[in-house]
User: Fold these one by one.
Assistant:
Number 1:
Amino acid sequence: MKIQLAESYGFCFGVKRAIKIAEENKNSATYGPLIHNANEIERLKRDFNVALSENLDSFKSGDTAVIRTHGIPKQELELLHERHVDVIDATCPYVTKPQQICEEMSEQGYDILIFGDEAHPEIKGVKSYATGRAYVVNSAEEVDALNLREKVAVVAQTTRRIEDYQKIVGKLMMSHKEVRVFNTICNATFDNQDAVYKLARESDIMIVIGGKNSSNTKQLHSIALDACFNSYHIESQEDLQSQWFEGKNFCGISAGASTPDWIIQAVIEHIKLLSQP
Amino acid sequence: MKIQLAESYGFCFGVKRAIKIAEENKNSATYGPLIHNANEIERLKRDFNVALSENLDSFKSGDTAVIRTHGIPKQELELLHERHVDVIDATCPYVTKPQQICEEMSEQGYDILIFGDEAHPEIKGVKSYATGRAYVVNSAEEVDALNLREKVAVVAQTTRRIEDYQKIVGKLMMSHKEVRVFNTICNATFDNQDAVYKLARESDIMIVIGGKNSSNTKQLHSIALDACFNSYHIESQEDLQSQWFEGKNFCGISAGASTPDWIIQAVIEHIKLLSQP
């Protein structure tokens, strides 16, 4: 069986940067998971003693707190500073951007609409920067239920599909005098999404590797499914099932922005084993 | 044969206002046609001695110049003022709005994109208010050829179809960090377009009445054609052809924003005659 990686996949700029920051801050702790990949977080703990705490109150004066790539709510960041915690910010700059936009647009009197998952830490963080009215929608259908004012500023979760974002903006345009659209979907997301679609069209099985709660991996998997019915989202080689590969000739592989290369390599080796005649 | 008018059609707020202004200014002249309807312009000349001049230089100090609903270029307006012509502004307020937006957004450093017809007087006027880079496109396809900067402000000709505007914005979103969308399509346009589509779906012949160079009438006709193959754009009852009505049972009628009721009534009477068994 032929196995082929997508032209663009895996670690993005923001994830690479955050891991480098974590590695440079041995014996620190991240507040929440640095990235959505449990295996990589284990490696940082094992090799660099970078711990993980989900509890804000666990950080005391003089401790070092590394902020996750997804960012955290503004109020929590302020609390850490007030408590004289040494804050090392590994928030992806592409996430800092929509945070700033939310703050600025609120101050200029716009209602804020965020396209994303309200429960996702990135969106909790971004929304916290709005000082006025701010809403989160997961799809264009949810726009109808909102009662937004005439001037609306829109940002998107960095990992969303542009086609869905276009639908939301298209709907807003119909009923609002001004829609100020910020394209906050990151380039790595664009490139990985383009590449997974191209590859999935040629593949008879697609494997997309990434954390189960990784938003960008879920998007990649959804795009793969559009082009290839046999598309699977796995976290590691342990999730692979041999029967998936029966009668298949071309296996495409992609991986989310928080999936390290060593996991991708392990998956490829395991697929080779499983698909041996 | 059943004859039915669309739920919304004909004279809009801006046209009614302009005609009232012209009627109140007997013995004046409009600079360019006040509205895109030759019959109504004839009536204003006949009943109120409101002339029409296409030549800016014909207006001398002390003359009264009525500005057409579509507006005129900023530089020409300034010239009239410099020459101490008494300027009566009948520009539709929905056209003044995109003029102001162009000026403000240029000053704030945005590239301006105007969706409309570069040769239409409304768009010539709107574009003249941009102090920086400004471009006009007639369709989403034309967006690719432009080399716009990261921050773009977009306005539309007041008479355009929202679906086409959405396509243009969707395309801009893919390659620009900020797209500031102003929905300058006027409500009368929206209402007339909605209504013509609904009616055309039920009709086996649709008659759309309006000036041949009236942008909003052309849009209504194009929408009617989407839903009813036998759709005709006419200026007056003289354009009607009896064979159009042979074997037809339901005739829908709509009219552009610059079409006066007396023309619509004359068309209806003539259709009744033509379709008599």
Number 2:
Amino acid sequence: MTERINRQWRLAARPVGRFKDSDFKWTTEAVPQLKDGELLVHNRYLSLDPTNRGWANEIDTYLPAVRLGDVMRGGAIGEVEESRNPNYKPGDFVSGLLGWQEYAITNGTGISKLPNIPGVPMTAHLGLFGHIGLTAYYGLLDVGQPKAGETLVVSAAAGAVGSLVGQIGKIVGCRVVGIAGSDEKCRWLTEDLGFDATINYKKEKISEGLKRTCPKGIDVDFENVGGEILDAVLAQINLGARISLCGMISQYNATEPVPGPYNLVMLVVRRARIQGFLVSDYMDRAAEAMTALGRWLMEGKIKYRVDIVEGLEEAPRAVNKLFEGSNTGKLVVKI
Amino acid sequence: MTERINRQWRLAARPVGRFKDSDFKWTTEAVPQLKDGELLVHNRYLSLDPTNRGWANEIDTYLPAVRLGDVMRGGAIGEVEESRNPNYKPGDFVSGLLGWQEYAITNGTGISKLPNIPGVPMTAHLGLFGHIGLTAYYGLLDVGQPKAGETLVVSAAAGAVGSLVGQIGKIVGCRVVGIAGSDEKCRWLTEDLGFDATINYKKEKISEGLKRTCPKGIDVDFENVGGEILDAVLAQINLGARISLCGMISQYNATEPVPGPYNLVMLVVRRARIQGFLVSDYMDRAAEAMTALGRWLMEGKIKYRVDIVEGLEEAPRAVNKLFEGSNTGKLVVKI
């Protein structure tokens, strides 16, 4: 066996605000021998997601905080190169929290084998057929409960999740309004993805944009952002509205406590709800979502795009594209 | 027909912070002749509720704002003295939004006739068998969905609604923790009403009190207060927790926008929800709640108390007891 060298990004400091280069340390080390039950994965694509920022804080969230000095946690897909685990053989492709590194050794816990779907590129397993697709599908349909004819608002609408949510909303028969941060993104949403209307929050006050685009009020809000957007949405919700709380990207880099919506009492006035969810709770129902998403993709009813950054070295800088809003589609690093 | 003189409190100014005497104007006027379809009600008891404060603001809520110069809106019960409406006859007792006045003329819309329940005092129809009982019953059972063995937190626990919520929670089999503002109230909750534990928020930090009293975390929160309490609750909710949002009394007198909970992202981390409700949505299901509450009352499983203030003249000052927390039980004015 030739000796392999692993290249890794380790968490070196707790970030304050957005990630800085100095929050990570680039290390190299020899890949150790496998023990019984382990497999060696050569990572091919690393998924960058807003939730990465939360994992780097000192406080545990839905997963334990990444410890200082550990390899940074991240979803990835890779190819099995060696295996002492009977469930995997060299050449299998797998996905899981394989980390910001070139090689990962795992005993298979939390890892899943990728099906070989003709015509579907490998990166789709980090997006449409991965946690992104599941998040959009169940976060909208199960938590948001949209009905035909209702008005759906999607924040971070040009993001990987938001762009899928809006398209699923159209399939369900909703009027879909997307909030995004550039005219180019807004054009993509309406012209390519079929959104009914958009708000460029850098050019228009969100509350005024919502009045303009949601003349019948808001029935469902798929909320990725929080902050000012959530407040503006709450002011215009209809009776029985549902806010599906996917995340609050506006807060992930905050260095001081961020107040919640000033308009929360609107939940009482409009008998409405805010409900949080995590995609991990829907893993046992993944097949249903994958089947539907695959069918819609084949039928041309949904489109998605991937923003590929070349080189593991770029990961610490690339991840901030999510918070600048400068990525176009699912952000991945080609390792 | 002898001429009757009506004594009334009219809204004279939009309150800033708590109600002041000068926000109301005391007027007297002759009661006019009834028209066809109308009835004349001699009000006996006026209900004072936290929501009164919101009605006095310029902004419409779930009901239109009370207009300056109009008789202040309020729930009341009274006796029909004259009727030109075939559905009512003199001697009937009715309840509805009859206003802060001695006499009300109505065409019967939104008014309901009170059943004569032996052994139940008239004031119970403003409390246990009125909107208070319905709010507690459906706000807890329908919105909060408590299960036996779960931990239920009730804010404003010594209030009219909160004290019922806690007792219903015990009937359902929950561990019940009440938050109140004096040792006397806390004693009443544990010794008389059977709450498992209490937090006197004037003596103990709420987050520490919750840690002390909810060692297994919080499954259901019946939230009357909002603000700091809601933040502290969110920090300690369990997976799948439900927050039933009844009101946010901490904000009703605010003169500046009040931020929502800083911890809202906990809804995502814990896959939890905040759901608002209004008792008016449950009016068509009132019979179920009244039957259950009546049975529990007879069985000695629930107790309630009424805080009676004498004299309509006192209403503007008495209503602030709700915001000072100085009332003990359902606050009513005997007219």
